[in-house]
């Protein structure tokens, strides 16, 4: 299974460093898949082509490992991971990015729906892995909305704003709070301080 963080931004790499070793590769892979799907949207010239690419990923995720296309490193990593990443999380990620196709600008409803699915796929999956009973959906939604605005500032409607929520204080949820903190500040040292202290 992939255990590197190729293609991920510095805050994501910092968050990964705080993930328990057993789940580090799977969490990395979830973030890489999320980024790959975002790239489809980022580079789309024709919504229909982007839709075909999303459908390809959805079908690949839904297939048994031995039926998935060969030669795609993310799918190979997924095969190597066994059943650590639930299929529902993968389906939610595709749905989250697919719903943005053909929409411009993205209004509050579509961005909320997008954020809910990404929060479920990444934040809730991670919380389940580490045995946390805390509801991380609200903070995951805030992260996803803020991250979307930073990645696609010209496409998110001006009135779309994430709510302010408290970051998880639990040490085992630190990767999630690091991701969220990184959307609140552009200060690298501030994010590192939060990673070290939780403040």
What does this structure look like?
This protein is 63% helix and 0% strand. The protein has 199 residues and is mainly α. It has one domain. Helix 1 (10-17) runs antiparallel to helix 2, helix 1 runs antiparallel to helix 8 and helix 7 (137-151) packs parallel to helix 8 (174-184).
Major β-sheet profile: none
> How far from one another are the termini?
33 Å
What is the total tally of β strands? 0
Low-confidence stretches: none
Q: What structural class do the secondary elements suggest?
A: mainly alpha
| Helix residue percentage | 55-70%
| Amount of beta strand | under 5%
User: How would you spell out the order of helices and strands?
Assistant: HHHHHHHHH
Total individual domains: 1
Characterize the quaternary organization of these chains.
single chain
Query: Please, how many helices?
Result: 9
Radius of gyration in whole Å, from Cα?
A: 16 Å
Mean pLDDT: 92
What is the overall silhouette? globular
Summarize the structure.
With 199 residues, the chain is mainly α.
Task: Fill in the keyword field for this structure.
199 residues, mainly alpha, 9 helices, 63% helix
Topology:
Layout: H1 10-17, H2 21-43, H3 47-62, H4 73-80, H5 87-98, H6 108-129, H7 137-151, H8 174-184, H9 188-197
Helix pairs in contact: 1-2, 1-8, 2-5, 2-6, 3-5, 5-6, 6-7, 7-8, 8-9
């Amino acid at each position: 299974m992939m255990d590197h963080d190729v293609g991920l931004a510095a805050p994501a790499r910092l968050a990964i460093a705080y993930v328990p070793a057993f789940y580090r590769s799977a969490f990395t892979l979830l973030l890489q898949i999320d980024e790959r799907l975002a790239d489809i949207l980022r580079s789309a010239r024709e919504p229909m082509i982007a839709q075909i690419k999303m459908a390809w990923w959805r079908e690949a995720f839904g297939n048994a490992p031995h039926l998935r296309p060969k030669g795609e490193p993310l799918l190979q990593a997924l095969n190597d991971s066994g059943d650590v990443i639930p299929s529902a999380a993968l389906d939610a990620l595709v749905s989250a990015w697919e719903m943005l196709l053909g929409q411009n600008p993205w209004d509050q409803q579509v961005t909320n729906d997008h954020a809910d699915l990404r929060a479920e796929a990444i934040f809730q999956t991670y919380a389940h892995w580490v045995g946390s009973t805390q509801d991380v959906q609200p903070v995951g939604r805030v992260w996803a909305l803020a991250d979307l605005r930073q990645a696609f500032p010209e496409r998110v409607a001006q009135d779309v704003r994430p709510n302010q929520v408290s970051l998880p204080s639990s040490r085992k949820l630190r990767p999630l709070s690091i991701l969220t903190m990184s959307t609140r500040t552009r200060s690298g040292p501030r994010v590192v301080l939060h990673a070290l202290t939780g403040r």
